[in-house]
Design brief:
Length: 161
């Protein structure tokens, strides 16, 4: 099953990237994610691994994922190593008016479960889609709030100088 969402953020791509690439911040905006722990020596970048759990209804699913593409500040993709079969991708692109278009894509499957797995995938799809959309909205609010705080700090510093 594939689900995706998109949002425009009033901030430069680097500001968005600083948040989505920081594993310590993932739980602050990712809806439905109940665990996101670094499981490798390198916490960020190509080859970084994370143990993650995602709530779908009353179940927590997930496993170990690994970053397989890492191109700051544009693309980050992961794939599952253990647990739920999944692939995901963040796409960050400059948009008009100083804004940034952010896309989150997720493909997942219940491997080897036959018809019962297909049914589970379809039943979960609206829940997962809702989590993706909420995550993107929460990311937008977080990035834009941090941009406002940064501009306010710069104004205070300019007045004090």
């Amino acid at each position: 099953m594939r689900v995706a969402g998109r949002v425009h953020v009033a901030a430069p791509p680097e500001a968005v990237w600083a948040i989505i690439s920081d594993p310590e911040r993932m739980l602050s905006f990712m809806s439905g994610v109940t665990r996101w722990e670094v499981a490798s020596d390198e916490p960020i970048g190509l080859g970084a691994r994370y143990r993650m759990l995602f709530r779908v209804g009353s179940a927590e699913i997930g496993g170990l994922i690994e970053i397989v593409e890492f191109h700051p500040p544009r693309d980050m993709a992961w794939t599952s190593v253990t647990g739920l079969d999944q692939r995901g991708r963040w796409r960050v692109r400059q948009a008009a008016g100083g804004r940034t278009r952010v896309e989150l894509r997720l493909a997942y499957g219940v491997a080897g479960a036959g018809p019962a797995g297909w049914i589970a995938e379809y039943v979960a799809a609206p829940i997962v889609k809702g989590h993706i959309n909420r995550s993107l909205q929460q990311l937008r609010r977080l990035v834009e709030y941090e941009q406002l705080r940064q501009r306010a700090a710069e104004r205070r510093a300019a007045r004090a100088a």
